[in-house]
C-alpha cells in the first residue's frame, strides 16, 4: 500500500500565483509599513493569512450556484439549506447570516445583558469583542495543556470542567449560557473530545443553562474525535458531528470554514425560546429570515459544502496537511503548537528567534521574514495582536509569540507545503539576519490590522 496521502481531488480551474523577487518583496513590505495585512494579495505567493472564506469550491458547489433561487421570501434555496442544517444538527430552528460574527451579534444582542458571564474554552476575537459590546464578560476556561505550546495532548481544546463548575456555583445567576469553540482556534486549532463536550453539557444542563457551539470547524473536530477518542474509530464522521450538535442546544456557525464557502454562516437553535428576538434582530440587521444577508446562490453553495466537508477522505487529507508541515518543521528544529491543529500550524517564534527581545515583536518579525524569504503570508498571534500600549506609554506583552499559517481548503498541494518548509528552514538558518520592528503608528483597538512599523 502506498503511504502517501494524496489530495483527494483534481484541479479543474486554476488561478496563477505570482512569484516575486526578494528586492521586489523588500520594496512591497516597506510600502506596507512592515505590516503584511497591508500587502496586496496579488503580491503574495502562498496566502496563509486565514482559512476563512478563502478555499476552493467544488464542481458540485459551482453547479449549485446556478440553481440559486433569488426570491426575497421563501426561496427554494433556503429550504434546501434548512434541510441540510436540520439533518446535520437536529435543531428545529435555523436562520442564515452573512458570516459567523453576524450570528454571534444576533444571538448576543438578543440574550446577553450587562453583567452576564459567558464561559468557553477560548472565545474567538470577534466573539469576545461582541460579548463585551453587549456588556457581557467572556471567560476563557480552556484546560491548562491548551496554553502550553510544547505539551502534547490529544484534546487541548477541552474546557476545564472544574473551573466551569466553580463558575456555575459561585456566579451561576450571571451565566445566560455556555459556549465552546470547536476546534479551538485561539488555542491552536485544537479539538474538544466528546467526553469533555458531554461533561460540559451535563454540567450546564444541571444548572438549567443551554450550551451553544461555536461550530466553525465542527467537521475537523469530529474527525479528530474519530482518530483520537476511544470508541469512535469505526463511527462515521457525520454521526460523530451529529452527536456533537446533539449534546448542545444550538450553534453559531461561520460557514467560511467548514461550510466550504467564500461567504455565509448561520445560527441554529433547538428550542424556540429566543427565536422571536433572533428573527426580529435578523430582519433589522441582516435581512428576511429566508435569506439572512446572503444571495440564494450562496445558500445553495453552503448546502453542498456542509455535506462535502464530512467526506472522511477529505478530512483525513485535511488534518494530514498540517501534520505534514509540522513534521518538516520538526526536522528543521522549528517549534510549533503541538500536536498540529486542524486548519493551521502555529509556529513558536521564540524557537526561531530566541535572542530577540519581546520589545522587537519576534512573531511579527518572523511573519515579515517569511514574506521576504519566500512570499508567504501568515499572521502574527503575539504581542502586536494581544499586547497594548497604555495611556502612560507603558507596553504590555502577550505570553506567546506565534505565527499562524492557516490553510485555505482544497487550494494548495503538497509541493506548496514542501516549498514553505524550505522557506521556514532557511529563515531559521539565517535567523541572525531577521530584523525586529518597532511600532510607529497604531490604533487603539485591533492595532495589528493597521499599525505602521519601522525596522528596530
Ligand atoms: N469563531 C471562530 C472560532 C472563528 O475562527 C471565526 C473567524 C469566527 C467565529 C467569526 O467568523 O469571520 O465568519 O465572522 N475566524 C477567522 C480566522 C477570521 O482567521 O480565524 P466570521
Descriptive notes:
With 456 residues, this protein is of the alpha/beta class. It has two domains: 174 residues, Aspartate Aminotransferase, domain 1, CATH 3.90.1150.10; 250 residues, 3-Layer(aba) Sandwich (Aspartate Aminotransferase, domain 2), CATH 3.40.640. It contains 15 helices and 16 strands. The strands form six sheets. Strands 2-8-7-6-5 form a five-stranded mixed β-sheet, with helices on both faces. Strand 3, helix 5 and strand 4 form a beta-alpha-beta unit. Helix 1 packs across helix 13, helix 8 packs across helix 9 and helix 12 packs parallel to helix 15. The longest helix has 20 residues. The N and C termini lie far apart (53 Å). The model has no long low-confidence stretch (mean pLDDT 96). The structure holds ligand F0G. Ligand F0G binds next to helix 4 and helix 5.
Q: Layout of SSEs?
A:
Blueprint lengths: L21 H10 L14 E2 L11 H7 L10 H14 L3 E5 L2 H12 L5 E4 L4 H9 L3 E4 L20 H11 L6 E4 L12 H13 L4 E4 L3 H11 L8 H11 L2 E5 L10 E5 L5 H11 L10 H13 L3 H20 L12 E5 L13 H13 L1 E2 L1 E3 L1 H4 L1 E2 L5 E2 L5 E5 L7 H16 L7 E5 L10 E4 L1
Parallel strand pairs: 1-10, 3-4, 5-6, 6-7
Antiparallel strand pairs: 2-8, 7-8, 9-14, 11-14, 12-13, 15-16
Helix pairs in contact: 1-13, 2-11, 3-11, 4-5, 4-10, 6-7, 8-9, 8-12, 12-15, 13-15
Bound molecules: ligand F0G.
The site of ligand F0G has 15 residues, from α4 and α5.
Write out key terms for the chains shown.
single chain, 456 residues, alpha/beta, Aspartate Aminotransferase, domain 1, Aspartate Aminotransferase, domain 2, 2 domains, five-stranded mixed beta sheet, three-stranded antiparallel beta sheet, 38% helix, 13% strand, globular, binds ligand F0G
